[in-house]
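Section 3.1: Structural characterization of target chains.
Under the original work plan, the team committed to producing a structural model for every single-chain target entering the pipeline before any wet-lab resources were allocated. The record below documents one such target. The sequence was received from the expression subgroup and is listed exactly as submitted; it comprises 301 residues.
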Amino acid sequence: MQTLEKLKMIFESFHEAIYIVDTERRILYFNPVASQISGFGQDEMVNSFCFDNKLNHVDDDGKNLCIEGCPLVESIKRNEIMEHFVYLHHRNGHRVRVHVRVIPYEENGKIIGAIEVFTDVTEKNLLLEELMIQKKLSLLDPLTGLFNRRFLHEDFPNLAKGISTDERLGILFIDVDDFKQINDKHGHLIGDEILKTISKTIQYNLKAHDYVIRYGGDEILVLLRNIDQDNVEYVAEKLRILVKNSTTRGLKQNLKTTISIGATILDVKESLMQAINRADHAMYLAKSQGNNKVVYLHKEY
């Protein structure tokens, strides 16, 4: 690419993440923002191939786009600009939702590669950011960075007063499958890293007004605002797929795990704890079905 050096100079100062590949999908350039969003340094990415299982893009169904349906391949093949929302695999192991725009790159009328521009579209939880700024760490779990159980009992009731009575509150009760065996086999430090990876994957793939709480041990509680049953089940299934398709990186071996999820919706005539207990029971039903499942229970249970 004759103009590659000029493009590098231009893209170094861009606010968007950018990388350039040739027709063999070899990465020729990876700008600083791409490193910031993905966690991978330029030296790790340049001269590797985009299908080398680093960014490892998947879609909402967990399909590995590096193997089938790669936007870069389609853009080069069709000579068209392609746009997608995908989930990249951060260097630390969690999934990050990004908007991808791929632009074919020509020289002398011939397609010689493509430029991919991607933007982190993770919705920022403004309340969580405010708490971090104010250093109200008593309401945050120090390991995962999620809200803790104290937040659920002390602060959430006050926040809930601002939630319209017309809103439906969805509840997901999540438990890491075989977590005790993971700790026994690999040690608690490895278990902690796996729990952090799972927590970030969940946190980064919800709406800004949703709440993620470390309920205890390897149990995670998610409160989804303004949602119906179909969407509660959709969100639960999406999280299950993303965790299943992620690995905790930076260890001696890349470890995968799965989660079981119990789901329900808070009824207007019951307390939050009643609904949480129902979601907890649904989670145990999911585990009884062999783990890595989502089970939804109605109030009639």
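Residues 272-288 form the longest helix (17 residues).
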